[in-house]
Amino acid sequence: MEVCIKLFISLIIIFLSVKALYWTWTSQIDPKATFQKYFNKEPKISEIVVTRDPNKIYQDGRAVADIIGQVKQTNKGIVFEQIANSTVDTSKAIEYQRSTYKIIQIERMIGMKSGVTDKGPQVLQNVLENVSC
After folding, report:
1. Looking at residue 47, what DSSP letter applies?
2. From start to end of 44-119, where are the E strands?
3. Domain housing 8
4. Are 71 and 85 in contact (CB under 8 A)?
5. pLDDT one-digit tens code per residue, 17-35
6. Do 61 and 126 reside in the same domain of the chain?
7. Strand partners, 57
8. For labelling alongside 67, which of 34, 73, 78, 122 has CA 20 to 30 A away?
């Protein structure tokens, strides 16, 4: 019976370790925000490591836009098909999935765009289309 309990505890520890390692290597960790949060106040245990949403654009560590359309890699850089809910300062560099880019060209700017998706009606504000970086 003792061996069964030791085996059960060992399996639980192995399972949790593998899950923690998987999360560590698949999440986009934001080191600057993590350290700022840790040193500025006492964090909750679930807030010790700050991660970034891979479908957002960041400036100065803050999310400033949602990526709606495709993201195309080109020889010269990257092109965002559509960015919505944008508060992007085009004079500053943007951060997207561990890389920093400078906006070169915006093909179209739309104040409000509405449409219907498979999830229902959708209203987007401050939409930028075909953003070349």
Report:
1. G
2. 56-59, 62-67, 71-73, 78-84, 94-96, 99-101, 105-117
3. 1-51
4. no
5. 998 888 888 888 788 877 7
6. yes
7. 65
8. 34
